[in-house]
Inverse folding.
């Protein structure tokens, strides 16, 4: 309490009332700064806790990256930010120091990948359009490793397939890349079911291995017998059915694509294991006809030339394709006393195709889907006994290509299928080229049938008529020389000139036209025309003979004459 | 007591009731004094003035740290979100065209709050030391502190306006940051600290001072 002096000068002032004081020293006001300090400290701790690990990512280029701005995104969520960019000591790479979110602490393991995401028009479509406005960002994919890593090397190309995407990888071998690229779509029945994940040149440089990813659940449609082919662009073919245009999708026209399918009789097979290797075919037709399962090989021996018989040439049964040539070799036959060398043609026959062209396959197979070997042996033995033989036949007169035809040869020497050798030997006969002969004969017959003599006669006759007509006209002109109207005079003169020219031409033609000249037909038509013209002129001349006044007055009034 | 010194209500043992204006004599008895007319507590000096001022000034200083370290404003655009602290805002404003604005913001948001705290600390220190020098200047300083107080909220006001006006979702919008709350805290606590300070203490003589100041 304050020491006060009692002041007698103001006795009229009221006295303050006094109550007992609660002696609580150290003012409660000090709680306020303590609260403030605690609050500040708590925020600082929060800040420190919110600070995740700092990592270093090495990029080939800092293009599109900005310190303090570019973020790291995991599936679209910001999980970090570039703090600073600097050039690596070797001056080859750019090192970015990235402040990650605390939640990302456990994700920074080996296998975790980073890459720059920017707008990109590439196989698989246009991606990252959002980055046109927001700038590039760094994509992240969490690895499966367990060891914590603090420095990473960014991928040059964004991974096409997310690490945890359900599905399976397969390998395709191809001669060249074509228009494929990362992300090139893969179609199954025109539905996009996967994409090209990566590719690399084989070590020997002879081909490429393409790694494709087929998403679940479509991966189970990839069987061991599945065929992959390039579905790039348009497949336009003109065949007996008309114009056939095939494409998997509009995208595949632009950027190419792959497609796969499984031959119908293998559709129920087990799905192929992951990383199974398949061949990549150029188109669907070659993919689907390539060695089918269940093909049965036969050997054919020919004594005649196999020039023009290519691998893949068809084998037909009464004209229907049932197989193809697998290889063409020479073969030495030691069974005879003297060694003979002949052509050995290995063919693959497809029983399924044979069944497909049968109108009623049940008759043969008894309801089952395939022919059993016993059935086949009996059937073929029967056919051979009836004269069925393999024969080389020309497929095209122009190119000289051959194919193997299974036909009935009448009076063929007796032969059987040698089931004991492997592959079995099917009896063959010397190729008959009667086909060519028949065609040549028919062409010759047609050529012979051309009416050369008649044409010649016509020509002679026309020339004679022409000469006579010219004489008549000349006589007319002479008789009325000076009396003709100038128009008619000039017309007559013109006609005469034309006829004279025609005469010259025919005279020349008579000599020039050889019996085999292609001009003959045309000439014949001309001859007819000229003959008609000559007749008209003769009619005119006759009329003028009887009615010379017509030249002056015209013909109309004299019709009753 | 020296007669050379001018008399104060306190030196005469008097006090004015702050509620009803009644002037009363303070009895020598120990205890709390109350106005006989309205019952209001009577103080010849604001109770625990220096202590409270110090406490509040220190609070303000503590709050001043997060106010400057935390962002006051987050600007969201399609290009991303940018959070600015007060100093970052000043740096961003510092351009050939808007540097006067940068100076205004810097002065209002950084210099003045800190200056007020320093000035208050100076007043408190001099009063505690019983200094009798340049009393007139110190009172002018006190009046300046009281006057400036209400204008220090400039930054908070600007922040509030910007946040309220720029809401063009999804193109652009501005969100307040935690820093602005601490900044408002600094300003309010500083005003309270200045209010807690009893300027009459400037004029109290050292020997009186040492006895207390209720
Ligand atoms: Zn009162």
């Amino acid at each position: 309490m304050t020491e006060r002096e009692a002041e007698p000068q103001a006795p009229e002032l009221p006295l303050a009332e006094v109550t007992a004081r609660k002696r609580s020293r150290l003012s409660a006001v000090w709680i306020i700064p303590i609260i403030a300090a605690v609050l500040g400290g708590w925020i600082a701790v929060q800040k420190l806790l919110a600070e995740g690990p700092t990592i270093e990512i090495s990029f080939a280029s800092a293009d599109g990256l900005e310190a303090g701005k570019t973020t790291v995104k995991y599936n679209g969520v910001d999980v970090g930010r570039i703090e600073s960019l600097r050039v690596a000591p070797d001056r080859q790479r750019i090192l970015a120091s990235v402040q990650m979110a605390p939640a990302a602490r456990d994700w920074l393991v080996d296998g975790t990948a980073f890459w720059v995401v920017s707008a990109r028009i590439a196989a698989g479509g246009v991606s990252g359009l959002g980055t046109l406005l927001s700038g590039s960002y760094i994509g992240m994919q969490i690895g499966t490793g367990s060891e914590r890593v603090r420095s990473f090397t960014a991928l040059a190309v964004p991974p096409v397939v997310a690490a945890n995407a359900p599905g399976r990888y397969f390998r395709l071998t191809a001669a060249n890349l074509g228009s494929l690229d990362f992300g090139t779509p893969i179609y199954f029945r025109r539905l996009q079911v996967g994409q090209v994940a990566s590719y690399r040149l084989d070590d020997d440089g002879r081909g490429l291995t393409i790694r494709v990813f087929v998403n679940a659940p479509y991966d189970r449609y990839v069987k061991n017998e599945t065929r992959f082919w390039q579905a790039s662009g348009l497949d336009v073919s003109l065949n007996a059915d008309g114009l056939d245009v095939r494409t998997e999708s509009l995208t595949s026209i632009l950027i190419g694509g792959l497609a796969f399918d499984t031959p119908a009789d293998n559709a129920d097979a087990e799905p192929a294991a992951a990383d199974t290797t398949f061949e990549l075919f150029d188109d669907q037709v070659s993919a689907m006809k390539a060695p089918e399962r269940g093909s049965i090989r036969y050997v054919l021996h020919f004594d005649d030339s196999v020039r023009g018989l290519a691998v893949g040439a068809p084998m037909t049964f009464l004209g229907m394709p049932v197989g193809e040539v697998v290889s063409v070799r020479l073969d030495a036959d030691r069974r005879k006393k003297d060694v003979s060398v002949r052509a050995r043609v290995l063919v693959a026959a497809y029983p399924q195709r044979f069944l497909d062209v049968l109108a009623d396959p049940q008759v043969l197979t008894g309801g089952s889907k395939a022919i059993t070997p016993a059935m086949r042996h009996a059937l073929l033995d029967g056919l051979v006994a009836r004269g069925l033989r393999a024969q080389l036949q020309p497929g095209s007169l122009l190119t000289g290509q051959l194919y193997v035809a299974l036909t009935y040869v009448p009076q063929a020497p007796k032969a059987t299928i040698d089931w004991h050798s492997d592959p079995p030997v099917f009896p063959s006969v010397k190729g008959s080229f009667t086909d060519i002969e028949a065609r040549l004969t028919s062409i010759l017959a047609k050529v012979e049938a051309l009416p050369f003599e008649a044409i010649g006669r016509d020509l002679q006759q026309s020339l004679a008529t022409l000469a006579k007509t010219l004489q008549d006209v000349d006589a007319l002109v002479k008789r009325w020389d000076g009396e003709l109207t100038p128009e008619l005079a000039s017309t007559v003169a013109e006609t005469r000139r034309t006829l004279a020219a025609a005469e010259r031409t025919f005279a020349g033609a008579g000599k020039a036209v050889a019996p085999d000249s292609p001009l003959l037909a045309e000439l014949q038509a001309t001859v007819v025309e000229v003959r008609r013209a000559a007749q008209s002129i003769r009619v005119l001349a006759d009329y003028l003979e009887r009615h010379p006044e017509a030249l002056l007055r015209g013909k109309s009034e004299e019709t009753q004459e | 007591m020296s007669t050379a010194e001018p008399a104060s209500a306190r030196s005469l043992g008097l006090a004015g009731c702050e509620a009803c204006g009644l002037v009363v004599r303070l009895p020598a008895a120990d205890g709390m004094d109350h106005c006989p007319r309205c019952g209001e507590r009577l103080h010849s000096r604001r109770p625990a003035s220096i202590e409270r001022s110090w406490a509040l000034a220190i609070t303000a200083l503590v709050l001043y740290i997060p106010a400057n370290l935390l962002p006051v404003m987050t600007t969201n655009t399609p290009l991303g979100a940018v959070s600015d602290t007060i100093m970052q805002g000043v740096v961003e404003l510092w351009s050939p065209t808007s540097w006067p604005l940068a100076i205004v913001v810097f002065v209002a948001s950084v210099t003045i709050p800190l200056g007020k705290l320093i000035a208050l600390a100076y007043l408190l220190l001099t009063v505690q030391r019983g200094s009798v020098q340049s009393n007139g200047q110190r009172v002018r300083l006190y009046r300046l502190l009281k006057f400036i107080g209400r204008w220090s909220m400039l930054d908070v006001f600007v922040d509030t306006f910007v946040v309220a006006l720029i809401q063009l979702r999804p193109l652009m919008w501005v969100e307040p940051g935690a820093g602005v709350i601490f900044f408002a805290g600094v300003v309010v606590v500083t005003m309270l600290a200045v209010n807690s300070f009893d300027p009459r203490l400037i004029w109290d003589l050292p020997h009186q001072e040492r006895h207390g100041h209720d």
Remarks:
- DSSP finds twelve helices and 26 strands in chain A.
- The first helix of chain A runs from residue 31 to 50.
- The two ends of chain A are 170 Å apart (CA to CA).
- The interface with chain B takes residues 1-7, 9-10, 13-21, 27, 29-30, 32-33, 35-37, 39-40, 43-44, 69, 71, 133-135 of chain A (CB under 8 Å).
